[in-house]
Amino acid sequence: MESTLVNLKELNPEAGPRAAFGARLRSSREAHNWKQDDLAELIGYSGRHISAIETGRKPPTLRFSRSVDTALGLTGTAESFERTWGEIRNGSLLEGFPEYLGQEARAAEIRLFEVGVIPGLLQSPEYSRAIEEGHVKRGTITPEQATERVESLAERQAALVRRIPPMVIVVLDESCIRRRIGGAGVMERQLAHLVEFAEQPDTVLQLAPFAIGERRPFNRQVNLLTLPDRSVMSYAESQTNGHLDREITSVLPLVRAYHQLQAEALSQAASVAMISEARKGTPR
Hints:
Elements: H1 4-10, H2 17-31, H3 36-43, H4 47-54, H5 62-72, H6 81-92, H7 97-104, E1 109-114, H8 125-138, H9 143-158, E2 167-173, H10 175-178, H11 184-198, E3 203-208, E4 222-226, E5 232-237, E6 242-245, H12 248-264, H13 268-280
Parallel strand pairs: 1-2, 2-3
Antiparallel strand pairs: 1-4, 4-5, 5-6
Helix pairs in contact: 2-6, 3-4, 5-6, 8-9, 11-13
């Protein structure tokens, strides 16, 4: 039996996006004269799970939202719960990153630099899953959120498959291929994925070896986008904040430094050779 008084006290749509999602879910359910268990049976969840979503104690997932849309006949509409879920997800991302994703999906050229971990656009599903499972073990996200992140990354990668694909130029610090993520098998397949990436006609892959030392101009992630109108923007993030920059006076020095990085980095052929060597586990 539902406790109306408790739910009324907890369901405050103004408390935030998750609370608004829960309040709307309850309103839609009651409009169909369904109890929580009725809706739960229709979409393959428990009544307790429905209650947790409605009261905001548990965040909705993409799978859950799509299941509710199917039950309510809202799939593909402007009122869909999937759309609301997307707004919640974007609201939880670092500031500037949702806008960056929109620009990345239409960029003519993408230039990346990363230290320590393979960047998302080049991650294999197993590798990205291993990273998210690490977050789950530390208690920073739920298993459902981990699954959503892996699925969202796959969608982000798929968005680059276009009639005229963007040129994707990537420089990886050597630490990216030396740091083992997910065990030997996962890492070996990730390195194989890098080699496959380098073989594509619209990609460039280079490694910045440890040997370049202080000549490496960046110590953090760098994302540079060239848009169809040839304007350039940069995106950088810290642990808690992301920043999308369109100011030419601050973006141009990054572009210059990126060119200097490429000059110091190994050629693509030498980079692929180092990656292949790492796959075999042979000493350098």
